[in-house]
C-alpha cells in the first residue's frame, strides 16, 4: 500500500476503451500522477495546520477562562470535602479510641529512639489532619471557631493549620469566632497568634463583626488584644457605627469606654449617633451623648439625629436628644425640621414632645408650607388643635396658595374647618386660582357650609380667575337650594365670566326652568349673550326648552336676534322641526325670510326637513318661494329631490319657478326624473317645465328617463315634444341609451318619433352594432326594419355580421344576410365571417354563409385554410361541408401540417377516411408525414388506412426516422406487423436497421412472422449483437428462439458474448451460454470472452463464465490471461475463483510478468492470495 492507499483505476466500459499492453507499462506514469495528487493533498494538509496554529491564541484564551472556572469548582469541592471530613471526625475518633495496637516499629533502633511517642488517638487524628488539604483544614478551623469548639481548634492548630488561614470569602477563623461571640475560641486563636486587625470581606476586622453582632465580651477581648477601635470597613463604618446601627448598646458602651471615637462618620457622613437615632436605639444614643458625641451632626442630606428620630417616630431617642440640647430647628436639604417631619408623618407623640420643648410652629419647608398646613392636609385634628393652641398662623399658604381654611374645606375636614373659623380664619382668602372658601363650598354642594360662610360675612360676589362667582358655580352644578340662598343674599345675577356667559345663560343651557325663573325674577338681562354671540333666548331655542322659551318670550326676549353665523331663533327652530316653538315665534312676529350665512331661509330648512305644517305656516306668512341659497338651490329644488309631492304642489301653486337650476345645472324636472318621482314630473309638465333642459353633462330629462327604462315617463316627455336626437357629453342619444339598456319598447317609441337610427356614440358604434353585440334580437330586428346600415363597423372594425358570428347568433346572421350584409368583410385581424363560424364550430352558420357565396379557399394570417382550421377543431360536420367546396386538400400551414396530418394526429379516423377518399396526398407533410404522425401517436387503424393508400413505411421525411423505425423503437408490434406486410425488397436495408433497434420481443416476432429469412440472416445477427451490447434481454432471447446464430461476430471478431462482457450484462451472457454460444471464440485481439470480462472489470461476467466451465488459462495476443487482469485490478473474488478453477499463477505475459507481478506493481490486496496459493493458509 502507498501512503495514500491503493491508487484508483479508471473503469473500462467498452472494448475500445480497454487498456492495451502498453497501458500495463504505462501504469508507472499513472502511479506518478497519483503520487502528485498525494503531494497536493499534503500541501493542503500543511495549509490547514497553519490555520490551526494561527488560531492557537484564541484557544489559549479559552483555556484560561476554563482554568478560572475550574479553580472555582475546586474551591467548592474542597469546601464539600471539609464538610464531609467534619462529619467523619466523630467516627474516626471513636475508632481510634478503640485501637490499642502498638506504634509501628522504627526502621532502626536509632530512629526508634528519636521518634516521640504519642497516643493512638492523637496519632490517628494527626495523620488524618496531615492528609487533609490545607484549605479543608482551614475550613474546619473556621467551623470550629464559629461553634466555639476550642478542643478541635487546638487540635487543628497543633496539626499545623495556619491560624491566619482564610475562607473563600476572605475571613479568618478569628472573624468567625468574633461574629459568633465565642469568647473561648477568641482566646485560643489570639493565644495562637491570630491577627486581631486582620481585614476580611467588605474590609471588616474581627472587631467589626463582634460589634455588628452585639457581642460586648468579644469586643472587650479584641480591644484588649490590640484591635484598632476606629478602623473602618469598605463603607467607612467603624465598629462603633455598626454597634449603634444595630442598637447594640452594651457593645457600643464597651467601645466608647475603651476610647472609640464617638463622632467617626462613614463615607456618607453618617455619625454613630445618627445611625443609633435611625435604629431607635435610645440607650446607644445616650451612651454616645455621654461620651461627647455631637448631637447635631448631620449627614450629606442635612439630616440630624433628632430629625431622623422624628421621621421614624422614635420618641425615646427624640426625648433623649432634646434633653441633651439637640437643635430643634435644624432642617434637612428640603427645609424639613423635626416638627414638620413628625407632622407630615402623623407622629402625634413626637409632635407633642417637640411642641412642649419649644419647637417653632411657623417653621416652613422649602415649599413654604408650615406644620399647620401639613396637619390640615393630613386631616390630623389633634395636631391642628395643638398647633392652634401654640399660635400657628391661620393664614399660612401652601404652594397652591391655599390657606388652612380652604384646604380643610377641600378635604371635607368639618371639625378642622370649624376650629379654624372659630379662631377667626379669613373666609375670603383665595388660592392661586382665585377660589375662596365660599366658591369651594358651592362646588361641593355643601349647603350648611355655604350658609355658615355667608353668616361669617363671606363675599357673595367674589370671583375666581375664570371670572366665575359663587352664583355662577351654583347655577352650573350646585343644588338649587344654594342658588336660591345666594340670590336671597343679593348675588349679582348678571355677573359675566371669561366666556362672556351670565348665570342666566348657563341656566338656560342646562334647561333648568326653575332657576331661569328665579334669575328673571331677580332682574337678569334676558338678552345677554355669550362670546359666541348666543343670547339666552337662542340657547333655549337650540336646546328645545319650550318652557324656558315661553318664559323668555314673556319677558320680552328679541325674537330676531342672530348668532355669529347669522342664524335666528326661527331658523334654529325650523331646523329641528319644533312646530310649537315655530308657531310661537311667528305669532311674535319673527322675520320669515331671514337667511343664515349659507343663504338658507326658514322655508328652505322646513322643506329640507319635510316639515309640512311649518312650510304651510311660512307660506301663509308670505315666505319667499324662490329664495336661493349658496348652492343655487330653491325650496322647490330641495322638495323635488326629496320627492315630497305635497310640498312641491304647494310651492308650484305659490308661483315657484319651475325652471330654476342648481349648481349642477339641473332643473326641478331633471331632479324629479332622476328620482323617479312621477307625480312631481306630471305636475311640473302641467306647469310648463322645459322638457329639453340639460344638466352640465348635457343629459336631458328624456335621456335620464330612457337610461332608467321608464317607458311611460318617456312617452309623456315625447308627447310634450322632447327632442330625440340631443346627445350628452358622451355622445349618446336617447336611442343609443335605449339600445344599451335593452329597452325595446322605448326603442320603438323613439323610432316612431324618427330618432336617428345611425347615431354614433363616442366608441364609434351605431345602435345596430351595439344591439348585435349584446344579442338583443328584438331590437336588432326593429333597427333593421327602420333602415339601419348593415355595414356599419364597431370600434374594433367589426361589422354587425362579424359581431353576430362572434356571439353565434344564427337568427341575427340570417336577418343580416337577408339585408345584404357582405360575407367577405374582414375585421382588423383579417378574419372573415366564414372563418369566425368555422372557428366557433357553428355548422348551420357555415352552411348559410357558403350558400351566400362565402370564399371557402381563403387563408388566415397563420397560413391556415378553412379546411385545416376545421380539422384542427375536430368538427366533422363542418369538414364535410367544406370538402364539398374545397379544391386544395393538401395546403399546409406555417408548421407544415396538412389537413390529413392534423386529422391523423388528433385521431379523427372519419375525417382521415373523407380526406383519403377526396384524394389527399398520403406522403404530404413538410416536417412529418401522415404515416409517421400515425405511428408516433400509435393510431393503428389509421396506419392501416394509410398503408392501404400506399404510404411508405420506410420513407424518411425531412431527415426524420422512418415510420417503421419509430414503431420498432416504440415497441408497437401490431403496427410493425402491418408495415412488414407492405415492405419491398428495396426497403430491406431500412428494415434491417429497424430490426436492430427493436425494443421488445413482440417486435422481433413481428419481424420474424413476416421476414423470417431476413431475421435468420445477417440482419438478425446484427440485431443479436446489438441487443447483447445494449443488455436487451427479452429481444436477445426472442432472436435466439427464432434461431439466430449465437456465435455470430462483427467485423472485429467480437461475438455477442464479447459484447455482454464489455458492458457487464451477465443475464444476457448466461442466456447466450444456454443457447450454445462458444466462450472460446476469440476476437481480433485474440481475447476469449473471459479475458474481455476480466479486462473490463465485470466480475459477474467472469464468475458466470467460470461457472460455465470455460478455459481459465486462455491467453490473448500478448499472453494475458483472465488471472493477469483480475490481479492487475485487485479483483479479489475473481482471483480466488480463477485459482480454485486451476488458473496458472505462473503464466507470464509477453513482457514476462506473472499475475503476482501485476498485483505487486499496483500494491493491491491480491498479493497475499497469490503468494499463499497452494499453501495451507490459502486452503
From TrEMBL:
Protein's UniProt keywords contain Coiled coil: yes
Disordered: region residues: 1-29, 98-124
Residues in ANK repeats: 136-168, 169-201, 202-234, 235-267, 268-300, 301-333, 334-366, 367-399, 400-432, 433-465, 466-498, 499-531, 532-564, 565-597, 598-630, 631-663, 664-696, 697-729, 730-762, 763-795, 796-828, 829-861, 862-894, 895-927, 926-958, 1019-1051, 1052-1084, 1118-1150
Keywords, comma-separated and alphabetical: ANK repeat, Coiled coil, Repeat
TM segment ranges: none
SMART domains: ANK
Statement: the UniProt record of this protein carries the keyword Ion transport: no
Pfam families per record: Ank, Ank_2, Ank_4
Coiled-coil stretches: 49-76
InterPro entries per the UniProt record, alphabetical: Ankyrin_rpt (IPR002110), Ankyrin_rpt-contain_sf (IPR036770), Multifunctional_regulatory (IPR050745)
Gene3D superfamilies: Ankyrin repeat-containing domain
Biased composition range(s): Low complexity: 7-21, 108-123
Protein name: Uncharacterized protein
